[in-house]
Amino acid sequence: MMSFSFKTLAKEHTYQTMLLTIFIAVCGTHRPVDEAMCGDGYCDLVLEGFKEGTRDILIEYKALDGDADRDEMGKTARKALEQIRRKDYAHGRPDAMAYGMAFSGKRAAVIMGRRRPVYHARGDPGGILTP
Fold first, then answer.
1. Which of the four pLDDT bands, split at 50, 70 and 90, describes residue 70?
2. Percentage of the chain surpassing pLDDT 90?
3. Cα 24 from chain centre
4. Burial call 4-25: b when 16+ CB within 10 Å, e when fewer
5. Taking the CA of residue 130 as centre, how many other CA atoms within 13 Å lie in the half-sphere pointing to its CB?
6. How many C-beta atoms lie closer than 10 Å to residue 111's C-beta?
7. Are the beta carbons of 61 and 81 closer than 8 angstroms?
8. Which residues, listed in sequence order, are joined to residue 103 by a DSSP beta bridge?
9. How many Å apart are CA 32 and CA 56, to the nearest integer?
10. What is the model's pTM?
11. Rounded distance, CA 118 to CA 125, Å?
């Protein structure tokens, strides 16, 4: 059995690599894409649904140094979700689900958002709703 020590999870890319590895190993409905070019930037992880009825999932990570408290972790997870909205990572993915994640040592915070069924003058779908 393989395991990770929280002491080795000091940087954002370490969490990203660990989660990508997990999704590659267990994902039967989505194709994981690391640092996917989306909208106006690169989303940390996109799980592209390839089976009918599955939605794309956008995940943005933020790692905090030290021992962050619950409030700081929640705010950081919201910033990650806001980055998905601000950089329009969901462009062209009308049913996408979005997750902002914050990590600090052994703890994690996750905030979920979803695509709005609102249309702009160009006919493009609206952005990500934040809780």
1. confident
2. 22
3. 15
4. eeeeebeebeebbeebbeebee
5. 14
6. 22
7. no
8. 63, 108
9. 10
10. 0.72
11. 6
CA distance 108 to 128: 21
pLDDT at 118: 37
Tell me the two tokens of residue 13: 């890319």
Q: Which of 38, 7, 4, 29 is nearest to 19 (CA)?
A: 4
Q: Using DSSP, state whether 62 is helix, strand or coil.
A: strand
What dihedral angle (degrees, nearest 10) is formed by the CA atoms of 87, 75, 100, 119? -50
**Could you tell me which residues come within 8 angstroms of residue 120 by beta carbon, excluding any fewer than 6 positions away?**
126
Go through the chain and tell me how many residues it has.
131
CA 103 – CA 74 distance, rounded (Å): 10
User: How far lies 112's CA from each of 63, 82, 84, 109, 131, in Å?
Assistant: 17, 11, 11, 10, 7
Rounded Cα distance between 111 and 76, Å, is 10
CA–CA gap between residue 102 and residue 92 (Å, rounded): 26
- Residue 127: the pLDDT is 46
